[in-house]
Design a protein that fits this description.
- The protein has helices at residues 22-26, 68-71, 74-82, 84-92, 105-137, 141-144, 148-151, 158-165, 167-183, 215-240, 247-270, 277-303, 318-346, 359-387, 409-451, 460-473, 480-492, 497-502, 506-514, 518-550, 552-565, 581-596, 608-617, 622-625, 637-644, 646-649, 651-660, 725-738; strands at residues 10-14, 31-36, 41-45, 60-65, 601-606, 628-633, 665-670, 694-697.
- Helix 5 (105-137) packs parallel to helix 10, helix 5 (105-137) runs parallel beside helix 14 (359-387) and helix 11 runs antiparallel to helix 12.
- The chain contains 28 helices and eight strands.
- The chain is mainly α.
- It is globular.
């Protein structure tokens, strides 16, 4: 409940990433919540306990703490790690170049690629249950020995056995569904004025009233993706069983229906989301009725299937399905890169983005790679556990009849590509930072020559430390080649698609080319190393998720990634973690609107909080904006967001934001800050003549120890800003102009 009576000039502080406490935001030990709830709330110093740190006389300081939206619930934070591939695929579309997407090709390609990730997830569950357990392990005496929980399945014919085990992928799909719906409940009830956003997001901007309302689109996509997952399971099940009581013709007809179900899901992903809820419900009812009937018939057909032999090789059709998904992902990535590059070249008048505008295919490739790593790790670790480490290779070939367990060839290539990506990525990172070191040091030297022209000999060590700090703060701009190299590695990995389709793994290929078999042996060990490397990385993520469940500090660390990755609405993959800005931006807009009825408001955004502040102001009506000012500090708006997300935070958007505010905007930045920077560098997209938005702060304030102190002034870098007089001066100026 709001406890603030009367008129009030308010400085509303919005924190950045990592989920800091309200006490730290306000720099005050005793705070009280005046609005909001435990997920996200507005805080002020308790009445009678003094003022907030860095407060300006006559201005009430309030803090908006939103960090618990990503780092609050332990279960939500831990489960988010499992949804990482889906999050990356959803993030890809937001990195698209600026300009009009005439045919909506980027959105279409990203949605189709997201659909393949769902198929990959289901195929991983199918590979563990139907293939490894039901088809390969149970008939293999060495695998089911000393495992009574599996031995009883040997008495069940292969068809009913596979039908029974199909329940596990269905449950896994339901769990992912439940995680997405459960974690979004914290954001319910914070919809903007528009009932729902447009389904066609080709020309949407941050000023659209329904931009942050993704419930309608997410609900539609969630239904379609579940149908895709169930259709994938139905096809895999029918491919692995022999015709039973329904006969060969009935089996073929049912298989065609299952494939048609997959095709229907693909078509619905390619089409715009229906804007009419009534029409959407009608389509989904038909789709769900078809899915339920087809799945029941598939399970019934498998139950009545003839006792086909199993245990010799992989589940029929599974190898081809895994390879087909990989091939589809490869083709989509190539097309996505071509379309994105063409779109970027056609965009005019905007600042050249990082990665030559290829952020969308790079992020999509990352999503595919992480999904492949998760899948390969799951399948290989389960195969190792079931078969006591006897996965076949050129040294340990399969016995003539059955066993040991053999995962699909596609996962061998994924392991080899993952190891190559790690090694090459690490090498490119090291070379890039090494080659840019001299240039970064030269830039830092020019800065300190300007800031500290007369330096005494005792302060030279301190001067060198400042120079190195400034040089390191410029390292983030140098990592573009690393990501481009990653995209090239992913593209080169497409050459393995042909080998996936025909079932030739890395060691088999080396054996055919090497002649004496020595190359195959070496590559077998390299591939094994790749499997273990990606397995260790995935296991590390699982440990991190477990730690996040038990430790609030670890939850804050994990939340740093999620603060950046879940900022945008879910318009591509519905199983991605929910968009916290869907609550934060409308909630901030509502609070600011209420506060402006009492007096001027200065929204003070630190780091990522400046992004939330900018998005909020773009949602406010002109009558409210007239009483609002903006103070940003340590802000990545231009340095990162305008370059990564040019379609949404490009120079035109930032200029429009300043114009809406009447240029009541000040931005504090330091050269030692590795995240923040100026908003308007010199150029045509800057503010009008005579308006200075950016205020550069020298850091450290001095190299010399003050006579009243014992140590020199610290290098403050990214935090704090509110302790400097320039901060209070900016607040006073902005409140005066807003009054």
């Amino acid at each position: 409940m709001d406890q603030t009576p009367g008129r009030d000039t308010v400085e509303l502080r919005v924190h950045g990433i990592s989920g800091v406490t309200a006490e730290r935001i306000l720099d005050h030990p005793i705070v009280v919540r005046v609005a909001g709830d435990t997920h996200a709330g507005f805080f002020r110093p308790r009445p009678g306990s003094g003022t907030a740190g860095g407060a300006t006389e006559g201005v009430a300081v309030e803090a908006y703490r939103w960090g618990s939206l990503t780092a609050g619930a332990a279960v939500r934070t831990a489960s988010m790690l499992l949804l990482l591939p889906f999050m990356l695929s959803n993030l890809a579309i937001w990195l698209r170049p600026a300009g009009h997407d005439r045919w909506g090709l980027l959105g279409l390609l990203c949605r189709l690629l997201a659909g393949t990730l769902t198929a990959t997830f289901v195929l991983a569950a199918v590979g563990v249950t139907l293939d490894l357990v039901g088809w390969q392990c149970v008939p293999y005496p060495g695998c089911r020995a000393s495992r009574p929980y599996l031995a009883w399945l040997h008495a069940v014919p292969s068809g009913p056995r596979l039908a029974l085990l199909s329940i596990v992928p269905l449950v896994a799909l339901w769990v992912v569904w439940a995680i997405g719906t459960r974690s979004a409940r914290a954001f319910e009830g914070f919809s903007p004025l528009a009932a729902q956003p447009r389904a066609d997001d080709r020309d949407q901007s941050l000023t659209d009233a329904g931009f942050w309302q993704d419930a309608h689109v997410t609900g539609w996509l969630r239904q379609v993706h579940v149908v895709l997952g169930i259709g994938t399971l139905d096809v895999a099940l029918l491919a692995g069983v022999a015709p039973g009581g329904i006969g060969a013709i009935g089996h073929v007809v049912l298989f065609v229906i299952a494939v048609g179900l997959l095709g229907a899901g693909v078509v619905l992903l390619a089409l715009p989301v229906p804007t009419s809820p009534v029409r959407a419900r009608r389509i989904l009812r038909i789709l769900w009725a078809t899915t339920v009937v087809a799945t029941v018939l598939c399970l019934g057909s498998a139950t009545l299937a003839d006792a086909a032999p199993s245990g010799s090789g992989k589940l029929p059709g599974y190898e081809g399905a895994a390879a087909g998904v990989v091939a589809t992902q490869g083709v989509l990535l190539v097309v996505l890169a071509v379309v994105t590059y063409t779109r970027q070249r056609a965009a005019e008048g905007d600042e050249h983005p990082v990665l030559r505008g290829l952020g969308t295919p790079i992020m999509a490739a990352a999503a595919v790679s992480v999904g492949a790593a998760f899948t390969a790790t799951l399948v290989y670790r389960v195969a190792d556990a079931l078969d006591h480490g006897d996965i076949p290779d050129p040294i340990r070939p399969n016995p003539p009849i059955v066993g040991p367990l053999e995962p699909p060839v596609a996962y061998w290539w994924a392991a080899l590509a993952g190891l190559a990506a790690l090694l090459i990525g690490a090498a490119v990172t090291w070379v890039t930072l090494l080659l840019s070191r001299r240039r970064r040091r030269g830039l830092a030297a020019r800065i300190i020559e300007r800031d500290y022209p007369d330096v005494s000999a005792p302060d030279m060590h301190r001067l060198r430390l400042v120079r190195e700090t400034i040089a390191r703060s410029r390292a983030t701009e140098e990592l573009g080649p690393v990501l481009v190299a990653f995209l090239l590695i992913a593209s080169l990995g497409l050459a393995t698609v042909a080998f996936d389709v025909i079932g030739i793994g890395p060691t088999q290929l080396a054996d055919r080319l090497g002649g004496d078999g020595s190359a195959a042996v070496v590559l077998a060990y390299v591939t094994d190393a790749g499997v273990w490397v990606i397995s260790l990385l995935v296991i590390f993520l699982l440990i991190l998720g477990f730690r996040a469940y038990r430790s609030a500090q670890t939850r804050r660390v994990v939340a740093v990634l999620w603060d950046l990755g879940t900022f945008w609405p879910r318009t591509v993959h519905p199983f991605a973690p929910p968009c916290y800005a869907a609550r934060a931006v409308p909630e901030l807009a509502k609070r600011v609107t209420g506060l402006t009825e009492r007096g001027p408001v200065v929204i003070s955004g630190h780091s990522h909080g400046s992004v939330l502040a900018a998005a909020t102001i773009l949602q406010l009506p002109p009558s409210v904006v007239a009483r609002v000012s903006l103070l940003t500090y340590g802000s990545p708006l231009r340095r990162t967001y305008a370059r990564l997300y040019p379609a949404y935070f490009g120079p035109r958007t930032l200029h429009d934001l300043g114009g809406r505010l009447g240029w009541r905007w000040r931005n504090l930045w330091r050269d030692t800050d590795p995240i923040g920077g100026p908003i308007f560098p010199p150029g045509p997209d800057g503010p009008p003549p005579g308006v200075d938005v950016d205020i550069r702060l020298r850091d450290p304030r001095s190299l010399t120890i003050d006579p009243a102190d014992t140590v020199p002034p610290p290098i403050e870098g990214h935090w704090p800003y509110h302790t400097q007089t320039a901060y209070q001066a900016a607040i006073r100026e902005l409140t005066h102009r807003s009054g």
